[in-house]
Amino acid sequence: MSSSVPRPTAVGVVLAGGASRRMGRDKARLRLAGSSLVERAAERLREATAEVLVADRGRGLLPGGASVPDGPGAGPAAGILGAAGARPGRDLLVLACDLPYVPAALLRRLSGPVAGDALVPRWRRGIEPLCALYRPPALAALAAAASAGRFALHSLLRSGDLDVRYLEGSELAAFGSADHLFVNLNRPEDLARLP
Predict the structure, then answer these.
(1) What whole-number distance in Å separates Cα of residue 169 and Cα of residue 21?
(2) What tens digit of pLDDT does each residue of 114-158 get?
(3) 87: Cβ–Cβ under 8 A, 6 or more apart, which residues?
(4) Distances (CA, A) of 53 to 40, 42, 49, 177, 192
(5) Cβ–Cβ under 8 Å, residues 181 and 95
């Protein structure tokens, strides 16, 4: 798509379909500062996109929210592909519900006009594929990988088959410390360490 042609607004996608085995209970329903993690993620995405879907395996976790079932595959890839099937041809701005401190300003930056097939934050601990923009070529590549039984987003983004752009260095640091931005809630002890 030419950069001179306006592209459709990205669709926000809350990834909330995980089994939460390490946490021992459904992470999406955990409450932080009075809101569930799925509500918090949807609220931040609404500040960056005109439409938000909740990829929660069709469980309807967000009252009044648009819930989508998984697509092919497993893990986050299945949630992303479910959203891609619901909104074909659209850019998807994904945010895992267990990343509670990603600010709306960072999401707005990720959803803005971008060259390439994907825009992904990258910092000293690596890339953040569950807080990223995926454009149709990346989604098509993910669908092809899933059909071959490959569901790892890290592998897809590092394959060299896509034009992946990175938000990093001082541009990423403008939104705060990456150690705080990308706090990830996987285990009960992660909750105990929250600031």
Answers:
(1) 33
(2) 889 999 999 999 999 999 999 999 999 999 999 999 999 999 999
(3) 11, 51, 53
(4) 13, 8, 10, 28, 29
(5) no
pTM: 0.88
Residues in the chain: 195
Tell the residue number behind the tokens 């918090």, with chain if given.
40
Determine phi and psi for 181, rounding to 5 degrees: -55, -40
Cβ 92 vs Cβ 134: under 8 Å: yes
Residues contacting 23, CB < 8 A, separation 6+? 30, 185, 186, 187, 188
Q: How far is CA 103 from the centre of its chain?
A: 13
Architecture of domain 11-192: Alpha-Beta Complex (3.90)
Dist. CA 156–CA 160, nearest whole Å: 8
Q: Give per-residue pLDDT as tens, 36-87.
A: 889 999 999 999 998 999 999 888 888 888 999 999 888 899 999 999 999 9
Rg of the chain's alpha carbons, rounded to an integer? 16
Residue pointed to by tokens 């659209």: 90
| CB 69, CB 58: distance < 8 Å | yes
User: Quick one: how far is CA 106 from the chain centroid?
Assistant: 12
Integer Cα distance of 166 and 185 in angstroms: 23
Tokens of 76: 């986050």
Other C-beta atoms lying within 10 Å of the C-beta of residue 24: 9
